[in-house]
Every structure is written in C-alpha cells, then in structure tokens.
Amino acid sequence: MSAWLMHHDPVAFGNGKGPTVFDPERWIPLSQKDEERIRMQERCMVPFGKGSRNCLGQALAMAELYSTLGNIFWPFDDLVVEEGVTREDLGLVELFLGYHPREARKLRILRGKAV
Question: Which PROSITE patterns match (predicted)?
Fold first, then answer.
C-alpha cells in the first residue's frame, strides 16, 4: 500500500480536523479512546516503508537526527524535568546511539553559558 494513502487516512489521522491539517495535539492522548487512535496512527505511520521495501537510508537518517538534536541541545546547561524528578528517576535505557528515557517527561530547557 502507498505510504501517501496510509498517511492521509481520515480514520487514522482525521481527529476531526482532517489528515492535512497541522495538528501536533493529535499525538497527545487525553482519553482511552485517544490512546487507541494514537496506536492506530503509529501503525499507519510508515515514513521509511516496511518489509522488503524499507528505505535503505533509514539508519543513516536516524543517525543524522540523533546527531543534529545532540548539537542543538549541547549548549544548554541542563534539561529540567518535572519538578522533583531527578536524573536518576528518569530510568534511562542505553541504546546504540545514546540514552533514552523509559517514559515521556515534560522538559524545560535552561540556556547554558556561551561556548
């Protein structure tokens, strides 16, 4: 199936506004029904394809993404997570290109000293 068709599926990505409307909130679950819809969206979201037709550049694209985000956040002193949560509470998981939190947390970025 075409990735374009999957990404424009009004059932999966409609959220009342249509799949072509910029709506980042469509990925934020506010209820049990939203969680089910988001799981369906994640199954339908195939920017790199799947299976034997998977994009050969996916690993390179993801490595570039991690590198770019690392360079963006490098000049900042600290990432303050929800009040009262320490770095140890994050429960970081070591993966190939870095550490990732087990659960999503809200972040507040503090500007560091000029490099």
Answer: CYTOCHROME_P450
Q: What angle do CA 38, 40, 44 make, to 5 degrees?
A: 115
**Phi-psi sector, 15: left (phi>0), alpha (psi -120 to 50), beta:** left
> Could you tell me the residue ranges of all domains in the chain?
3-51, 58-111
DSSP assignment of the chain equals --HHHHHT-HHHH-TTT-TTS--GGGGS--SHHHHHHHHHHHHH--TT--GGG--TTHHHHHHHHHHHHHHHHTTEEEEEESTT--TGGG-EEEETTEEEESS---EEEEE----
